[in-house]
Structure of DUF2306 domain-containing protein:
Amino acid sequence: MASIVKHYFLKASQVVGYSKLYNFSLWFIFAGALLGFALARLQYLHAGTYAKGAVPGEWYYAHAGRDRVGIFLHLGTILPCAILVVFQFVPRIRQRCVIFHRTNGYIVIFLLLASNAGALMIMDHAFGGGMDVQTWVVTLVVACTLSVGMAWWNIRRLQIEQHRAWMLRTMFYMGCIITTRLILVILAVAVTRSSSPRYGVWPCGKIRFTYQQQHVSDDVDALLKQRYPDCAFTTAANLSSTFTPISASLFAEDPARNGVAFNLSFGAAAWVAFFLHLVGVEVYLRLTPREAERLRMVSYERQFAAGYKNPGSAGLVVERWGDAKAWGGQGRLPLEDSPFAR
């Protein structure tokens, strides 16, 4: 059985264009996860579906105004971006469909930058809008913007191995939201089962809106009086300015308590996921030095053909900024080893 699976895996890797099975395996796992996640989330571009599927309380701010514009700008750009970026890492497309690869790359950059704008618009309310969440959003936006900018600059300078490295970083930074979701559930369960109760604070208007949106009870006022007395007699004008503590519980029948469990856990989950992806992509880059060196020779040949003064080191390479030794591979590859002979 294992040999059959390996056989078809090898066939698939050859179709896609990978010459090494481990590279195809990593692409299949990580790009596949990103593609599957994005395809599954396309349904949330419909406002009604998003309202039903979002974490309890999120629709309170997102149903109107700036947050509505921000969330659908973010989803409407980052989901297509996540789908299209997968094709940027298919060797067969890069080799045989250069125009598509180049055009698709510019589309990915535009969509990513637009999605960053949407994320910044909603960060003060998303998952409770705590400082941990806001700083994570800003950090992720800056990291993705800088890395995709570095990727763009290096490909403009024909520094292909650096372009590959920075595009991989961009893709891994983007993908940390998937790992965040997995860790979020674990932490929300941990918060729920904590020996000491954990509390969040919501405005009464948010609780009432969430109850009504999720049809928790036919008599919302009676339920509020029972569960949150501070909100029971609050006038309509003061609903958004009157706050009440809510104990976190993922398994309670109260959607407000479910939402608080996710709100308290999201910031920690997001930072842990970002750290794992930040380290993970650097480990992968360090474990594939031969591929980086091969692509640097491709860079050398293309820069040499383009008349660059310092072929092989025209982009943002480390020796231009640090104390690394000058690159020593500035010699033509034998014809049979040249990437252009393939």
User: Anything to note?
Assistant: Residues 332-342 have pLDDT under 50 and may be disordered.
